[in-house]
Write a structure and sequence with these properties.
six-stranded mixed β-barrel, 14 helices, alpha+beta, about 400 residues
Length: about 400
């Protein structure tokens, strides 16, 4: 207990002397803190932007739903030979019906096909709007809600009615301040009556999910041709059984598509988490580069601290000799110089954190990039900066403590 009390006194006294020394050499302190501050600012600015992108991406990805699966002849992310996937057989409506009857664990299922088209109403016109053909079960898969009117019905599908449900961006642009329900829009010069509007979903990978017009699947084929391949969207009844459902779907799909034993699957079961994994790989590399740049800058700042502290030891050699002659221990001298180095570094880290956070916020305001720095990252930045100061202050502190008191008193 006595030993700890003495050590606590050394820390408090060392902190007091360190702060006095920093005030006495303001210009040197400012220049020293700049190196650490730049490193922390660079690191936090990049990390803040990456964390913001990650948060935004996962929030957007969650809009797909944790229990959704998409069956297609193409994988969601194509790696390798695209022609290998292009040569696979297209799905048919008969296969969709058979799959629906053989998969009771699926709560909703819809074929889904899309293309880009021009959409207009009166004098207003929009280009490159996604026109999507689905059936009446798609609402239970997509995560959309109806904000006005209704969604598609089985009757719409059976008689190929030219009806449409509008995404939020399309509704706001074509019908500002008025209800679009009951009005007629033109999709590539074909007339469609609006029966409902969808809730806003936002963007995924910087692409709007609301720039959308949904029409019945059979209406899509009768209007735009049947040669376009489609995927099958589905929702698993129990979100906790998605992986088990996926395993069962593989066997059912192989049987429906006539895949013989030993042949590879001629389809892919795509999940939103596949996008998350690919995204994590891309941002992981960027994260590593950002951390590397920040660490190099902090290393340079640490070397600057070591250099300044060695100069400080030389300037205060006589002071060190006087303190040692009056009974100061080596431990006391070491703590004093370590506290001084850590204080300089921590101040630099705090200033760098402020600049880094400000930079990330400015970038998020003037660009589409998001910024979201977590509290742990901020505290970690300041703590790591202080740790850099401690590590690079060890040698100067040890050198000061090991000075011969007699020689130090003679130093001019």
């Amino acid at each position: 207990m006595k030993h700890w009390a003495g050590f606590r006194v050394d820390i408090l006294e060392g902190a007091r002397i360190a702060l006095f020394s920093l005030r006495a050499n303001r210009l040197r302190t400012v220049l020293t803190t700049m190196g650490i501050g730049i490193g922390v600012a660079t690191l936090l600015a990049i990390v803040g932007i990456i964390q913001g992108l990650n948060t935004s991406f996962h929030r957007q990805l969650a809009s797909f739903g944790a229990n959704t699966l998409y069956v297609s002849k193409y994988p969601m992310i194509i790696k390798g030979d695209w022609w290998k996937y292009r040569g696979r057989k297209n799905f048919t409506l008969d296969q969709v019906q058979r799959l629906r009857s053989m998969a009771p664990f699926i709560s909703a299922m819809s074929p889904s096909v899309s293309r880009l088209a021009d959409v207009s109403y009166a004098s207003e016109q929009m280009s490159t709007v996604r026109i999507q053909g689905v059936n009446h079960e798609y609402l239970g898969i997509s995560g959309f809600d109806i904000t006005s009117g209704r969604f598609l019905t089985e009757a719409d599908e059976e008689v190929t009615r030219p009806v449409a449900v509008l995404g939020a961006d399309v509704a706001d642009r074509l019908f500002p301040g008025i209800s679009p329900v009951g009005r007629t829009i033109r999709v590539d010069n074909r007339s469609f009556q609006v029966v409902g509007t969808l809730s806003r979903k936002g963007k995924v990978v910087n692409q709007s999910m609301d720039l959308l017009v949904i029409i019945p699947f059979k209406t899509f084929y009768s209007s735009f041709g049947k040669g376009r391949p489609f995927e099958i969207a589905m929702a698993v009844a129990d979100a906790g059984q998605v992986r088990a459902a996926e395993d069962q779907l593989i066997g059912i799909l192989r049987r429906i598509r006539g895949t013989t034993p030993g042949e590879p699957d001629d389809f892919n079961i795509n999940k939103p988490e596949a996008m998350a994994q690919t995204y994590a790989q891309l941002t992981g590399a960027l994260y590593g580069v950002a951390v590397g740049v920040g660490l190099i800058t902090l290393l340079v700042g640490g070397i600057g601290i070591m250099n300044i502290m060695l100069v400080s030891v030389r300037e205060r050699t006589r002071e060190i000799g006087v303190r040692r002659a009056l009974g100061a221990r080596k431990r006391t001298i070491v703590v004093q110089f370590l506290m001084e180095a850590a204080s300089v570094s921590a101040v630099g880290g705090l200033l760098g954190t402020t600049v880094g956070l400000g930079t990330a916020k400015v970038v998020s305001l003037i660009t589409p990039l998001a910024a979201d720095v977590q509290t742990g990252t901020i505290l970690g930045g300041v703590f790591f900066a202080a740790l850099v100061g401690l590590l690079f202050g060890i040698w100067p502190a040890a050198r000061a403590a090991n000075l011969d008191p007699v020689e130090a008193l003679r130093y001019e």
